[in-house]
Amino acid sequence: MTVPARGGQLWIRRFHPAPDAGVRLVALPHAGGSASFYFPLSRALAPRVEVLSVQYPGRQDRRAEPCIDDIGELADRIAAELRQWADRPLALFGHSMGAAVGFEVARRMDVAPIRLIASGRRAPSTHRDERVHLRDDDGLVADLRKLSGTAAGVLGDEELLRMILPAVRSDYRAAETYQGESGAKVACPITVLLGDDDPKVTLAEAEAWREHTDSEVDVRVFAGGHFYLVEHQEKVLAVLDERLKVPDSV
Description:
The chain is an alpha/beta fold. It has nine helices and seven strands. Helix 2 packs across helix 3 (97-108). Mean pLDDT is 91; it is low at 1-5. Residues 26-244 form the Thioesterase TesA-like domain. Belongs to the thioesterase family.
């Protein structure tokens, strides 16, 4: 069950409050994803880390709201929401589109996060000419099936599928049209995670995250495709436990 966020916010979901946690992890979903994708991660990390899952507009209980199809605008809104959660050190975890959002949120934060964890996403300095968001509905669904990131029950339920496609298309448009600002960096370390068979990011594109911070960058490769993190949850959790240490200076 979701515990209501401060002030009844719609953006931030705190599934497992952890008042004694030394750090909060802000979890940013992939294209078409929702805050509930991170419920298992939140449960696994509590109470040592408190997870704040972001709910983008246009899905689940925010379905009636207009989607935001621009990474910069999403980052502006999320960074503003996070100001009231900055009484403890914050780290950012984003998967796929969420990694690009996380990078831009980190650039906008008043106090730099202790770490950015970028999963399943090429570095902002790299570019691909991707146009999946311009396909018809069948073409969009075909890409979802290829990535295996949408529950089989959703892909098999025509009515439910058509309900989520507007948000999926909007997110794909945001992710595919995003181009990082030349020379843009964050003031924190970066951990990059990827699957070795991910069609959305190569090892070279992952290594290019080194261009986006003057701090340290480590790249971890797992067996699997774009949603390797579902299959390797325990290994991903081990990386998070290792990397989400609050610096003594904080």
